[in-house]
Amino acid sequence: MRIGLFSAAVGLAVVLGGCAIVDSSVAPRSDTVSRDFANARNEAILLNIVRAAHNEPLSFSAISQAIPQMSNNTSLGLPAFFLGPPFCPTPTTCTLGSAGPQRGVLFGNSVASDSVAVQTQFTLSTQETHDFYNALLRPADLYVVNFFARLGYPRELLFWIFADRVEVRRGNRSFGVEYNPPYTFGCPELPAPLARRVECFRDWAEIAAITGLSVEERIVEKRENGKSSRQAIGRVCFDDVAAAQGRAAMRLKDEALYQRLVSAYLANGRALHTVSPKCGTPWSPKASHADRLSFVVNGITFQIVLRSPYGIYQFLGKLLRQEMSGEPIQPPPGHTEDEVLPLLATIVDDERIVHITRGAGPDCFVWTHYRNGDYCVPHQAANTKRIIGLLAALTALQTSTTDLAITPVVHTTN
């Protein structure tokens, strides 16, 4: 009997101890929910890139609230047992109650029970509103590009992501350069004297990196209808520190390419020091094309027209479609495949803008399922992971609380 009571006491201590372990800390549950939401966000971005690659409409939603819940119901009771010696009217007959002959302890199925229920309730809001799409379809502002440049994103990658096309004007002559595979790889037939000086769109991205093409802004006071307000005015400039970093990175990765760019396009390096305006020099902010990076070098006017966040998805979808097709690239006459491939020359850890493979598994940073199979972003795809973070930030910048009006509640139980 003493052994039975001791076992019951031990069991009670173990069960109560387990309840204390489950209920005493919110850190594991908080970490699990946070990781799940981050993975859901990354998967939604990847899915939209895949949709763009298949020319299908994009879809945007946001989780505006999460309520993790857990309940643990435990019931304990003393087992049925009997005291005293058994009743033995004859040497062969002993009785201790009607249900347990010769048993000091009687256990039943309701003596001890425990039930745990874990539930996560979250609010999923679709972002199908006028204001959200107005911001999503509007070209990025200069201050947004400045955000990511100052966060340390590689400038060559930012050029590919944000620059929709480059417009060049010299006197009454003008032309444009746009990367829109498979229709054009940004290799136009240029008028003299620019012929054979600027090759393809890829050259513009590499030159932007080694010249330190950047953005700076100033806050100015603006008065309108008797009211004062502050406005951010931006301009394009060339940052010497960023230029030195770009040149060092390119020389580390491909010295031959660096020498070719300097000798062919930048007048043997003299233009690296003469490009203007320099970042940090005095200027008077009066007006700005928020969606255009406009600057003048050697009497030639350059304008870089920026993409919208929606346009960035479409561009990435084109790159993914080109990569998944498996068909060889047909470069324009007079150019090689290497000149038109969207490869990065100043990023050592990864040269591909988009690196998405078919299939799923433990080597995937994030994966998603589409109608024709699984798509995976490998862990070594550094630039693709950078782009996912960039798109997450862009979407957040375009979202306000008024965009979260439609809120169906979804319950899940784990």
Characterize this entry briefly.
The chain is 36% helix and 28% strand. It has twelve helices and 17 strands.
What does this structure look like?
By secondary structure, the protein is an alpha+beta fold. It has two domains: 2-86 and 103-126, no CATH class; 130-398, no CATH class. It has twelve helices and 17 strands. The protein has helices spanning 2-23, 27-53, 130-136, 142-150, 155-162, 201-211, 240-253, 255-265, 270-274, 309-325, 337-340, 382-397, and strands at residues 61-76, 80-81, 87-90, 93-95, 105-106, 112-126, 163-170, 173-180, 184-185, 213-224, 227-238, 292-297, 300-306, 357-358, 364-370, 373-378, 409-413. A five-stranded antiparallel β-sheet has the order 9-8-7-13-12. Strands 1-6-17 form a three-stranded antiparallel β-sheet, covered by helices on one side. It has a three-stranded antiparallel β-sheet with strand order 14-16-15, covered by helices on one side. Helix 2 (27-53) packs across helix 12, helix 5 (155-162) crosses helix 6 (201-211) and helix 6 (201-211) packs across helix 7 (240-253). The radius of gyration is 33 Å and the shape is elongated. The two termini are 41 Å apart. The model is unreliable at 1-6, 12-23, 98-105 and 401-414 (pLDDT under 50).
